Amino acid sequence: MSEFATQTSPAAEPEEAGFDFAGFLWRRAWLGVFFGTIGAAAAYYYYLQQPVRYKATSQVLVIKQQAGMLVSSVNGFDPAGQRDPLANDARMIKSESIVGPAIADARLNELPSLSGSSNTVQAILTDLSVDRPKEQGDVLEIAYRSSDPEDCAKVVNAVVASYDKQLKLAYADVGTTTADLLNSAKEEWQKTLKKSEDDYAVFRKSGSLIYNGDSVTSVSEGRMMGIEGERSKTLIDQTAVQAQLDSIQKAIDRGGSREAVLLMVEAFTELNEDSQKVRSSPTLLAAKEIFSLQLEEAMLLEELGSDHPKVKLIRKKIDLTRGFLQEQSNVDGVVVLQDTKKKDFLEIYIESLQQQLQAGEERLKQLNALFEREAESSKKQTDLQILDRRLKNEITRSQEVFSTIVNRLKDVDLATKGGDYQTQILSPATRGIQFEPNFQKIIMMGSVMGALVGLLLGFMVESADKSFRSPDEISQALHLPLVGISPQIQFGRRERGSVIEPAIVTIHRPRSQSAEAFRGVRTYLLAATRGDGHKIVLVTSPEPGDGKSTMASNLAVAMAQSGKSVLLIDADMRRPTVNKLFGLKRENGLSDLLEEVPLDVNEVIKTVSFEGGMLNVMTSGLCPVDPGERLMSTRFENLIALLRDRFEWIIIDSPPVLAVTDSATLSRLADGVLLVVRMNGRTRMGAVRAAETLRMLGANMVGVVANGIDPSKHGGYGYQYGVYGAGGRASKYYAETTDRR
């Protein structure tokens, strides 16, 4: 059996599709519009039943600069304890202490909207509101709602006037109390400040600290820093001298040549720029000079001899230099030489370094003793510095508290006189405007609620609808590549003299959209087989009415029009359709070839000629009693093997998968199975079950064709589908079978 080439299709293994929200809105939007209109009408009726309410508003700017005054509260009003100056004002305005005087002053209980109220204060407080508009600073927005627009303005203006009056009285009482407290505190802190300043003056006169403006220094601290610097320098010099002695001694102990050791000493005296005493010592310079003259004398002796004038001159210089060394004794305070005639330069240099170490140790002892004396003195002066800072801090704190008290006294004086508190009416209340019922809000809410109810109902209908809504959805549900999309065939008139039905659009209307769809399926199959011939394609569907016979017939014609030798076999012996589509007699068909005494194959195959090609057709023949057993017989297998060699393509129109088992039998003889699914039927579960059945039997599923798409409704993939019931089709399949033998 030939096999189709493996096709890589993105739809072969699709991912699970999510809810198509856009498609849902397109299909069920009318429900949202319908119920939205009903909701708007109901909202309008509700609007007409609501009582009319009015609202008047006034904005007041409040300026309070004395929020930090040292009092707790007066008559329940706290002007100081809040970071927000207006934190308590809203609660204050909506209280009986403000509304009660407002009713009495403006005679609000005589207003038409309040005259019948038993408790006027509570009635006003119920509809009175105080808000703070965002980003407007210290502004209060006072509003009142009522059924009378004139009464709204009168109530708001009366409350604002009462608030201003009560606030001024509260600040006047607070200012008097606060002033008394602050004057008493001022006298006490003034005495404290005077005593602190006197104590500090006495301390400065008797202390030994050095004052330079605001800074205070200690003599001992400066001396200790200088001594420490000298100690550090001396220790560094000692370390350097000891390192040179250790290096020279190690070189001598290793048994190195004296000349190499002398060269190392030479390097020390030249490179050590910090050893000023060694380099500048006359004794060391003279010893170095003797060493150089001795080297020069040795060289001249080898070349000129002992009697040469140059040798005598060198010896004279050596004697003079040694005489200098004998006279030099402790000139630089570092090196003392004895018996210089017996010592060379190396010995002199080592002895000078040892003398430097001894001198350094003596200097360190003196510096340490001096540092300890100054440290004892510094401790005493440190205690004096601490006491000095404490006295100055006490004076500073006293000055700050005293200054704060003085400033608060000034603020309280302004508050008492009213100069530190102001209220300004930014917008007085005018005739109230209607705010309830809100026509736009009510109609909008009614429309939205109605639309939501409609969409919810649409979602429920959508969830109950089991039909496919798009070709991609078919491919995803069946896990098959989408081979083609076939629109609904628009039947025209049959051409005069033609017996072929108009449903064969590939003959009657070859340039139509439907014919192009069938040619698209043909192109897919040719590509899937890579141009090889002798292929058998089984065309079937989940249930009757999916259009598989029309698909098989048009596909066979399209194959024949491409120049291929094609045989169309109608294997649906129970309800044959191919003979009707091509105007052929049903007799002498497939069932006759499967009899015990079969007809000749050539007698059964009929030829249909048309413009552009020729098609071989094998009708079903009269339906036998056992069509399923006939298709399972060896005769049928031998027949298919015989026909495979004669034709390049064999298209088999098979019964529906879920109606009978014939398709399952035929699928194992075909190279590939093409499943036709109609869009506008309740075929989702049936299509999935049919695909699973064919896979379970080992059928080679080529792909799926979405049939019956209405271009006027499904342009693109925003489909709307007409749903009709498909129940009972399989059960009627046998009942409607005719012409049995």
Summarize the structure.
This protein has 741 residues and is of the alpha/beta class. The chain has 24 helices and 15 strands.
Describe this entry's structure for a reader.
The protein has 741 residues and is an alpha/beta fold. The chain has three domains: 21-38 and 439-464; 51-277 and 383-436; 471-735, 3-Layer(aba) Sandwich (Rossmann fold). Helices cover 55% and strands 12% of the residues. It contains 24 helices and 15 strands. The strands form three sheets. An eight-stranded mixed sheet has the order 8-15-14-9-13-10-12-11, sandwiched between helices. Strands 1, 2, 3, 6 and 7 form a five-stranded antiparallel sheet that branches. Strands 4-5 form a two-stranded antiparallel ribbon. α3 crosses α5. The chain is flat. The two termini are 33 Å apart. Residues 6-17, 66-82, 273-280, 329-342 and 715-741 have low confidence and may be disordered.
